[in-house]
Amino acid sequence: MTQHVFPVPATLKSTAHVDLQAYQELYRRSLDDPEGFWREQAQILDWVKPFTTVKNTHYSPDDVTIEWFSDGTLNASFNCLDRHARDRGDDAAILWEGDTPGDTRTVTWKDLQQEVSRLANALKTLGVRKGDFVSVYLPVVPEAIAAMLACARIGAVHSVVFSGFSSESLAGRIEDCRSRVLITADEGLRAGKHVPLKKNVDAALQNLPFVEHVLVVRRTGRDVPMTAGRDRWYDEALAEVSPECAPTEVGAEDPLFVLYTSGSTGKPKGMLHTTGGYLVHAAASFRAMFDYHPGDIHFCTADVGWVTAHTYLIYGPLANGATIVLFEGVPTWPDASRWWQIIEAYRVNIFYTAPTAIRSLMRDGEGPVSKHDLSSLRVLGSVGEPINPEAWLWYHEVVGGGRCPIVDTYWQTETGAVLLCPLPGAMDLKPGSATKPFFGVRPALINSDGTVVEGEGTGNLCFADSWPGQARTILGDRDRFLKTYFSTFPGYYFTGDGARRDADGYYWITGRLDDVINVSGHRLGTVEVESALASHPSVAEAAVVGMPHEIKGHGIFAFVTLKEGIAESDDLRRELVQVVRTRIGPIATPDRIEWAPQLPKNRSGKILRRILTCIAAGDYENHGDTSTVADPTVVAEIVKRVQLHKTWPGPVLVIKRTSCQNNLCERSPERIDSSGDHVASSVQFQYPASGLLQANGPQPPAMLSCARKRSPIQRGYQEQAMSTIKTRDGTEIFYKDWGSGQPIVFSHGWPLSGDAWDAQMMFFGERGYRVIAHDRRGHGQSTQTWTGNDMDTYADDLAALIEELNLRDIIIIGHSTGGGEVTRYIGRHGTQRVAKIVLVGAIPPLMLMTEANPNGLPIGVFDDLRKSTYENQSQFFYDLSIPFYSYNRDGAKVSEGIRMNFWLQGMQAGIKPAYDCIKQFSETDLTEDLKKFDVPTLILHGDDDQIVPIVASAMISSKIVPNATLKVYPGSPHGLAQVQADRFNNDVLTFIQG
User: Fold this and answer.
1) pLDDT given for residue 662 in this prediction
2) Which residues are involved in binding CoA (predicted)?
3) 395 vs 189, 355, 391, CA distance in Å?
4) How confident is the model at residue 625, as a pLDDT?
5) Which of 248, 294, 336, 926 has the lowest tally of Cβ within 10 angstroms?
6) CB-based burial of residue 568 (10 Å sphere; 0-12 exposed, 13-18 middle, 19+ buried)?
């Protein structure tokens, strides 16, 4: 591949702070005279007590010392606020754009200073003192920045936790730093969905009695439980205190914040950063690497919970007096033009984002970008992972109009600020390269034997000596800090990354060293293979990991996401293999390419390759710390695809049945009798092979179509006594009503006589709940109706039952088709009587494959299902138990008892109502009904559900329903409530009680 080199734009050469000659001179000085260099750089801040000692650092084998400006004192909040508010109090400090378009706020320097001072005073009244830890669990709102600066103002140490983390992840981080005070919000908003922050906080604090106070920001205004004596509304607390708070003098080596790593390298670590060195490095690097000039508008898209936001959204820009754009939402909601709208509206000059976001937006093409005026942009930035050349070029040409340099930055949570990056006015750019080291930084490439690579070459990326922004330790675990970063190569800080240095001295990050694949003795960096794959015009994104290989030791497993509108095919796989062979060589030939609709990423957009490594090795459940996965359903979908070795829709599998092995049948299986009890027939089921039945799994036993009269066993079940109501059209609906307490209504789609949900009803009844379930019309003992078997009527029947029993504060649980019934009930009757909703293996929003719902099932599947119900109902339900419980999987333990019970339940539905039911639940679009859910909703689904595809149901539903929680059961079938009853019962109980 020809190496493209992009020279410094002529418009920057004359105005940039640093040109090439200045960079070379300053960089040399920063190495030869680090104390003199950093003494000058530190003058970017105001010091209370000027320092006399610049640095005291060494990486000795026995110990590590990292101290910068240690005898000086200052205050970070003062440097980020007061000195700008004095002269520019009415200028904008923060331009906030909410998740919903049109929801905006402008926060001036004076506003921010007063908000910070009030919050600092409020924290003081809660007993927070210098050195105390305060946890912050907020969405991307101005109050999050105020919380950080208020802590800094009084010398407290903030620990910001990403608002997308679960209650368990939040609890772990609070417990680690022992915060007594937590600042959160009632809810967050993300892509139109409500994020239950306060609910998560309440769950997290159940076993953390040392947390004494919780301040709650009113973000959405919804009612949330408030614990007396512990919880206070943020605005009320601030209204009671003064808007003036003198900044506390702190030492340069006093801690400023602790921030936990994203988990992409294992268990999260609390990296402790101190005040003086960090703030000097953040402020100086922001000014240099973005060529910041007064008046520039800076837009960093990172969430406040990540180090990118700490350094280059908040501390670095604000210390320079920059106006920042703070965006709560996501780039693709309500459409893929959201970022470009914001850039145009606020006339953004500096834009800093992640490669994964760029690759995602590339899938939508140039259209969304071209509709907006981005001429204000002067500098673009990239952070989080290496940016492949194709994404770099698209970013440069389409977003930057070919005129904006791209500052490709390399750094880590541990490093605090940038280590490798170009300076816009100084360096020619090579797409995909992090270019040269920042001032004062001395990189080294070291071989595994400890020898230092000179000149061009590859090796382990390390850094000699220290820099001001470096983390001082891992909170509470100094031994781990020393072992992780300083023991592998004594005398050096070890990043854990590999890198290549080219003949021009440019650095190229080759990936985490656990992302380097040793193929037949050849070390291949995953980034190189990924870039080759991404060069194909059909590829949006690729991630490459190693996989066990009997001959080569390790093979290459590639997960590839295609651009919008590109069809998956074996021909395309072969093209991609050829691209890699051509770009890199035959040694890099991928052993396997799997299509992935999306790749698993953490909240900062970094691809979690360690999870893909587990999947490639055949470990589909144990992926290590998954608390930071932005969308867990992505992992479930990839696992499903890898296990199936196919993509949807697959080839049609035809299964024929000719003999009977029904152990309830009184006739010989060899005897085909046409006397009326048995009807001979040969039935075909046509399902996509990757859908209901699998060609490579064990097949159901051959079975005669048995359409005989109901057995005495069935009649015994039907004769059980139950209560009844009559609907407006006279239909008699049978129901069970057990126990007392808060009502739980089950809508399960099966006749009550089959006892399909009795285990769940017993579980919750024994725990003090009132449990109710009913026979749908046409099922079990309810009236066998010829008409009225439609979705609206099913929902109205459910409403009639609820109204007849005068139920309120209901927990309503819908399984399979019952989930559709519940959803339409909400759509027609609202949630006035409903407290919470649970959808289990449910069909919404739409089962049928359409142009708008490509992941649904083809109409032919439902045609065959309907045909089977009236031609051969007995055979149909016996066969259906196989995919219902995933008995067609290798190694599955088939229970004939469960199969017979399933068959018995199915046979209690009338043929005509069953036929209508299938049509209604397969072809009804419930999207608009889902949008009316306004109570907490739990969506449970097995990722091996062969009846209701998880992609077309649970994943989409969880995105449509506000305030929804999605839980995916790995390896679980449609009948998860039976095969994983304990887990299911406890998950639902936890949700109900939460």
Assistant:
1) 29
2) 190-193, 308, 520, 581
3) 28, 9, 6
4) 66
5) 294
6) middle
CA distance 119 to 234: 8
- Residue 478 is labelled as binding a ligand: no
Q: Residue 883 belongs to what H/E stretch?
A: helix 873-884
- Tell me: is residue 523 an annotated ligand-binding position: yes
Residue 909 has pLDDT above 70, yes or no: no
pLDDT(695) > 50: no
**At 5, which amino acid appears?**
V
Which residue is listed with tokens 């759509």? 827
Tell me what percent of the residues of the chain surpass a pLDDT of 90: 55
Tell me if 583 is assigned to a ligand binding site. no
Give the list of residues 6+ apart from residue 570 with CB closer than 8 angstroms, or none: none
All structural domains of the chain, each given as residue ranges with its CATH number in brackets, are: 10-499 (3.40.50.12780), 520-644 (3.30.300.30), 657-994 (3.40.50.1820)
C-alpha span between 156 and 127 (Å, rounded): 11
Q: Contact at 8 Å (CB) between 219 and 185?
A: yes
Residue 246 in marked binding region = no
122 known member of a binding site:
no
384 is in an annotated binding site: yes
Long-range contacts (CB closer than 8 Å, 24 or more residues apart) made by 808-811 = 808/743, 808/833, 809/742, 809/743, 809/833, 809/835, 810/742, 810/743, 810/744, 810/745, 810/834, 810/835, 811/742, 811/743, 811/744, 811/745, 811/769, 811/835, 811/836, 811/837, 811/838, 811/992
User: Which tens digits make up the pLDDT trace of 875-907?
Assistant: 777 777 788 777 777 777 777 777 777 776 667
- According to the annotation, is 913 in a ligand binding site? no
CB 814 within 8 A of CB 823: yes
Write out pLDDT tens, residues 65-116.
999 999 999 999 999 999 999 999 999 999 999 999 999 999 999 999 999 9
Please give the pLDDT value at position 356.
81
Angle at 619 between CA 615 and CA 625, to 5 degrees: 80
Tokens of residue 700, six digits: 């159901």
754: left (phi over 0), alpha (psi -120 to 50) or beta: alpha
Residue 672, pLDDT above cutoff 50: no
- Is the Cβ–Cβ distance between 593 and 577 less than 8 Å? yes
Give the model confidence (pLDDT) of 263-284 as tens digits.
434 457 899 999 999 999 999 9
Q: State yes or no: 193 annotated in a binding site.
A: yes
The reply to whether 536 sits in an annotated binding site is yes
DSSP three-state, residue 867 = helix
In angstroms, rounded to a whole number, what is the distance separating the alpha carbons of residues 300 and 304?
A: 10
Residue 9 labelled as part of a binding site: no
Task: Take residue 8 and report the two structure tokens written for it.
Answer: 């410094």
Residue 111, annotated as binding a ligand: no
Q: What is the pTM of this model?
A: 0.61
- Say how far apart CA 441 and CA 817 lie, in whole Å: 62
Strand ranges for 841-881 from DSSP E = none
Q: Is 88 annotated as a binding residue?
A: no
581 is in an annotated binding site: yes
